[in-house]
Amino acid sequence: MNFLDRLPVTPRYALRNLARNRRRTLLSAGGLALGCSVALVAIGWNRGKNEMLINALAEGGAGHLTVAPQGWLESRGARLRLNQGSRVLAMLRADPAVRVATPENRVQALLAMGTRMVGVEIQGVDPATEPGADRLVRKAALGRYLVPSDRQGLVLGRTLADRLGVGPGDSLVVTVTDSTGSMKNAMFQVLGVVDLKSKLDAAICQANLKDVEALSGLPGEEKITVLLKDPSRLGPFLAGLRPRLPRGDRAWPWQEVSPDIANGVRLDTVFVWLIDFILVVIALLGVASAQLTAVLERRREFAVLSALGMRGGSMLKLLLGEALALGTLSLLVTLAISCPALLYLSRVGIDLGSGMDVAGVALVDSVMRADFGPWIIWESVLLSYAATLAASLYPAWFATRLDPAEALRVAQ
Amino acid sequence: MNKPILVSASRVRKVFHTGSVEVEALRGVDLELKEGDFAAVVGPSGSGKSTLLNLIGALDSPSSGELTVLGRPMAGLSKAGRAQLRLKELGFVFQAYNLVPVLTALENVEFVLELQGRGPAERRSMARQVLRELGLESLAGRRPSQLSGGQQQRVAVARAVVSRPRLVLADEPTANLDGANAESLLSLMRGLRDRHGMTFLFSTHDPRVIRHAGRVVTLADGRITSDAAKRKARSGRT
Question: Both A76 and A20 in a single domain?
């Protein structure tokens, strides 16, 4: 006794109907699978792009979350300081969920080299932890990155260095207005030049946090950037962190710190789903048409089944059973098409060229890759079965509405 | 002894509407069918034979008049009620056999029992038993395309009688069969009538069926023009 013989007659009937008109079955399943596969590849590509964008944003210095004084999100004021920055920093660094926590403060400055001058914002960073949080500056194209013992050293972006005509070893005059409103000058030495080949090269200017404190006359940290080991745990981590922060200090997720990027990600996702929906609807309309033709061809058969006493519910079960069988075939073809395509796109990807940025976020890796994971299985299942069932609903309803006497008369 | 009346039709009319055209297929038919009858409705094409069978078979409703089948007035019966009546108490045999092509002979017979909600063991045993009774046991695993016309019609009869319905309706059952197969099928159906007390009503213009019938009802232009019980039926019952 084979597998089919163990089933009740109705599912056997439904399964064998797939082989009744093999060409139509294959075309229906193939058409639907193609639509679902394109939709899945688009979803996978978008997920990969979003993940890459979020990683580039987080590891480009923005982190997964930012701890800063109340009001910082609205003003982004460089003069604001955390109430108990050192304590919060120590607490975050001791948390096993945290990959890296690094402090930052800023000061507006004028850099001068001979007759050349450029206005910049100097970022004061902890040289020991900053490279772990900001992969843009990890590798200096010329010279080296800051180390904790460096004082009055600078790392510049390539564009900035070119405008000033400086390179590693050159000295610059840094002029700032401190917290009391007095002008201050100091000599700084260029230690390294970072070359991202993007517009960010015109903005990178980093120094030791202590030097920026001395220049601005404002001790302490303006904000702490935090990267988590598991970014998917951001929500629960934030919920646990907020009550532990000192009064007046707040924590925000990257979506609130960079709302433009978050909205872009959301918009892209909605757009991809909309395109996918249209694709699948087009495919399912084709299948619905084929299924309706099949029902019309089997008018007499349905009339006979009805004459034998088959009720609408049983007929609906039979036809939805046929749809499930078609959906299974479509699912297998979908997986056969989309898995290799997504695997290729996730391993090899597409090289967008150097200096590429997406939505203003510099991509450190110029190769964009799709996401490949277990989600493909359940989204394939969802898409294939939902599309075949939706495509079969009208033909099934049509079959249950057939008048058996009329159908037998027409068939004769 | 008075046999119970299974079908009672009084002034039954059936009118079909095709656009603005009205076609009166039955014009006031009066008929009674008793348990154990082996009756044939004869008449030329378009005389209303199939329409009468469809009405008795609860496939259609009369436009006017009273029709009672197995004690149920057709006028008040819902679509679901009619389906239930067909499933549980009526059997159908069609001219073109109309077996499900993707099911084997055994599965075609079993399918009706599954629709009735019977369990797998019971329906398998009942289906095998009726195939054995009709000499089809060796063909149980074959699909309709692997059977001759006569064999297919015997499977169709097996499907119609497997749940022992009280009334079996057969629309031109021998029209596609050769002489030997038609004779064999009719003998088989008479045997079922004799053994199980089933009632058979045929629509036909096949003289072979008329020869076997215990009663011949003649329809012409939607009216019964004669209704004759034969004195010499092939078995003792008429």
Answer: no
Domain boundary among A256, A285, A311: A256
Domain boundaries, chain B: 36-64+76-228
Q: What is the mean pLDDT of residues B64-86?
A: 91
Gap from A386 CA to chain B (nearest CA, Å): 26
Contact (CB, 8 A) for A98 and A229: yes
Query: Domain containing A244: what range?
Result: 65-256
For residue range A76-93, what is the model confidence (pLDDT) as tens digits?
888 889 999 999 999 999
Whether A84 and A229 map to the same domain: the answer is yes
Tell whether A110 and A153 lie within a shared domain: yes
- Whether the CB-CB separation of A188 and A153 falls below 8 Å is answered with yes
Summarised one tens digit per residue, pLDDT across range A97-155 is: 999 999 999 999 999 998 999 999 999 999 999 888 887 777 778 999 999 999 999 99
**Does A301 sit within 8 Å of B100, measured CB to CB?**
yes
The closest alpha carbon to B35, from B59, B9, B10, B69, belongs to B69
Contact B3, B238 (CB under 8 A): no
H or E element at residue A26: helix A22-58
Residue with tokens 């590891």: A59
Dihedral angle over CA of A329, A334, A340, A341, nearest 10 = 160
In this structure, the answer to whether residues A181 and A89 fall within a common structural domain is yes
| The domain made up of B36-64+76-228 is a member of CATH 3.90.550.10 | no
If one counts the domains in chain A, the total is 2
For B:123-142, CB contacts with A below 8 A are none
State yes or no: pLDDT of A317 exceeds 70.
yes
Co-location of A69 and A115 in the same domain: yes
A147 with A279, same domain? no
Of A300, A310, A311, the CB nearest to B98: A300
DSSP A134: B
Substitution target in A408, A410, A412 with the highest count of B β-carbons within 10 Å is: A408
Residues of A in contact with B161 (CB under 8 A): none
